[in-house]
Amino acid sequence: MILSELLNKYVEEKALYNSVGTIRFYKDHIPFLLSYFKSVEVESISKQDVINFIKFQQSNDISNNTINHRIGIL
Fold this sequence. Notes:
By secondary structure, this protein is mostly helical. 73% of the residues lie in helices and 0% in strands. The protein is built from four helices and no strands. α1 (3-15) runs antiparallel to α2 (20-37). The mean pLDDT is 95.
């Protein structure tokens, strides 16, 4: 499954039992994941891809807290 499809389904499911603020949180962070990983198949994302994503975020002065949130969504 393509990452964007999976994340959309994830947010739809979360919307059933989470607050509006939580859903906004997901919607705020998902675009950063999609802009980095593009239209990749979820199964093809490797540990090294995630490490590279973390390094990319760090190189753009993104806080560790924010990076951890984004990785948590992924």
